[in-house]
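<derive_structure_tokens>
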Amino acid sequence: FQMRVGVAGVWEDSDYARVRNLCDGLDGWVEVYKKGNRSIYMQTIGTSSVTMFKAYVTWPDVSATQLFDTLHDADYRPKWDKHMTKSVDIGIINPNNDIGYYAIRSVTPVRPRDFVLQRSWLDSGKEKLLCSHSVCHDDYPPMAGHIRATTFLSGYLIRENGAGCDLTYVTHTDPGGKIPKWLINRVSKVMAPKVLDKLYKAALDYPTWKAKNKPNWKPWTYPDQLVDAPRISLVKCEPRDYIQDVQDESGSEEDNENESD
């Protein structure tokens, strides 16, 4: 999927199939965490030194549709994602592919990160996929004071399980800058269960919030609601490399690479 980075366009069935296979397969994955109904796996993909993570969890009291809506609803995101500092819906490629800008805060001395992401989704009823990867857009270069991060792939595979759902989440992101890769991998492993907890609570609270906030507005489900949405010109999404003033954020140069073990 690294070959897709920077390339904007409509996802095909074969793209979703690759994500589904990545979520369901165990080849190359090493289990690094297991507690109750949650498991976390990791593996190295290609030549990247940043690890890909996969999380699996079952939630008996969150329906597949409820979780899918929670992840999609941009108006709800600020209520549960406290790391987000800015979000812009740039436009749509078609009713199942859009592009947005997203900025997140960080802890000093690490500089904030920002992304331009294409989201692609497929809802086949009992199974739903929501995937993202980094692209470029002429109107959204890296914001001042931020470092542009790269998401090779982020994917949610949601399946109905009775009244609840099974979720498999894969993520492979390089935050850029000069943070040691071993530190990125270690923090990601620790944060993964916390991210699941936050998403679970957000999904539980979503129906009550949505009932009071544009309850009928779900353009990811009802494409006719996108009639006035800005259309993406792919000419503005040509891949490019940004020249950034990247400062050393790693602290001491004597950090031991072996600490990633």
Notes: The helical segments are 13-24, 64-72, 77-80, 181-210. The mean pLDDT is 88.
